[in-house]
């Protein structure tokens, strides 16, 4: 496989992933961004924890999530648990942003 073929394959995979995201985003309430992944979910819990040496870390749990990862064969995940020392961003999606205008 040439470098050009690999680039074309990755571009096609990213386009497929974007199309899937566009199709499923309306099913979810929250966007969760961690250092490594981007998730859509309806149930998210963020806990701030402290290690024995005083460092702060975050524990994020989600149920019935969709994960943005083009290398995963299945992007719907029943349960997710992320533990990270990096920032976590949780946003509530505005449903009106994804509704199609009604035809009059």
From TrEMBL:
Record Pfam families: DUF2469
Superkingdom of the organism of origin: Bacteria
InterPro entries per UniProt: DUF2469
Protein name: DUF2469 domain-containing protein
Species: Actinomadura keratinilytica
């Amino acid at each position: 496989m040439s470098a050009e073929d690999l680039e074309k394959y990755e571009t096609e995979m990213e386009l497929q992933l974007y199309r899937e995201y566009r199709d499923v985003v309306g099913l979810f309430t929250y966007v969760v961004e961690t250092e490594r992944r981007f998730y859509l979910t309806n149930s998210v819990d963020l806990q701030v924890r402290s290690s024995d040496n005083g460092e702060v870390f975050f524990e994020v749990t989600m149920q019935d999530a969709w994960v943005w990862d083009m290398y995963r064969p299945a992007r719907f995940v029943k349960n997710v648990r992320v533990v990270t020392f990096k920032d976590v961003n949780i946003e509530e999606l505005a449903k009106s942003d994804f509704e199609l205008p009604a035809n009059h």
